[in-house]
Fold:
Amino acid sequence: MQETVRELFSFIEESPSVFHVVENMRRELLGRGYGQLLESEPWELKAGGKYFVIRNGSSLISFRIPREDYKGFQIMASHCDSPTFKIKENPQMEAEGVYVRLNVEKYGGALLAPWFDRPLSVAGRVLVRKNVAEEQGRIVSKLVDIDRDLLLIPSLAIHMNREANDGYKYNVQKDLIPLYGMDLDKETFMEQISGAAGVCAKDVVGYDLFLYNRVKGSVWGAKEEFISSGKLDDLQCVFASLKGFLQSEERVGESVPVHCVFDNEEVGSSTRQGAASTFLQDTLVRVNEAMGRSSGDYRRSLSQSFMLSADNAHAVHPNYPDKACPTNRPKMNGGIVIKYNAEQRYTTDGVAAALFKDLCGRANVPWQTFHNRSDERGGSTLGNLSGNQVAVKCVDIGLAQLAMHSPYETAGAADTDYLVRAAKAFYEMSVDEPEYGVVECSSSFNSRITAK
Ligand code: CO
Structure:
């Protein structure tokens, strides 16, 4: 197995919830000398310093201040959440007087069928009231991961629904309720969760707990062309962009390298920590202030900034080739996908695409293009949402994959490396390099205007 794929799989396996993704990144950044900033404290930043800030324990922005005065921001964004099921309050539900199930609700636009008949577990965070004398009443957040096969959603046998293979409309409240145990106390689940967090059940005053698929990542195919794992959308981009960001430390350009990972993309991003929130804007404004720059300087910086919004893309499905655009047909292992949409659900335009293709050329990374079929609506992503708060030139990209939003997705074994290389090259370049800063027009109309 390639080293990058091995690292990607361990990153995903150690990240069973969004809170774990952010905690893993936090540890990595601390280990590399990044200082953690708190939104509730004043920020003192130094030229040459490396920092990060976390909001809600589930979104993280890291950045480095250049030694010299800087021009703009080089931003790369991806998302850490994936479609899943969230454990409701009062979760235990009995059936037939002996079985105990857990009551869940859907998070994001999951493909439901692949959630059946596979081992599942629970991870997330619990909020705990501290009872130590000096900390009386203080509430702290603790990560929890049961980390063993715990639950399963069993299918109904074909004999009891002969039409099961003719298409079935799933009802989340009836069909997707996981089986948990038999003959249990009312409090068993919360006791198990609090035990895993190392606290007393009575001290747990809140939680955000999610199901996750226990099947580990796999490399497969005649020549090991393919990888499959949970959460490739979008942890493949989170992992690759972080690796490129960290590798780029050697060469500091004339802009501030900014690495963003946002929660809640799968539910529309409109939360306090989502891509549509003020998190990125607040962070960039505070960097600007802490470096003693004016609001005019901030606006000049934005005009010289560039953003890569990295979220996985659809490869042409070999069994459904008719579902793809006739002339833009991404393949797994074909390089980074540039995503286009005329109505700007993706931010890419001709200029941004030209800049990104040039970047790929310099990094020696292949690229390909994606449009939806003109009669399909398709999905949306981060770029146009963060653009509402921080209006910078942006290109939407991703890695080609199949089975998006299944709990076990498939992608190309070579592509993660391409994104690591492109991210590294992106963070090492300067926005004011002529080929990135100048848009020359050669039409006679434009030359007439400039001539006056
Ligand atoms: Co995504």
The first strand starts at residue 35 and ends at 37. Residues 432-437, 442-452 have pLDDT under 50 and may be disordered. Residues 79, 233-234, 265, 311-312 surround cobalt (II) ion (CB under 6 Å).
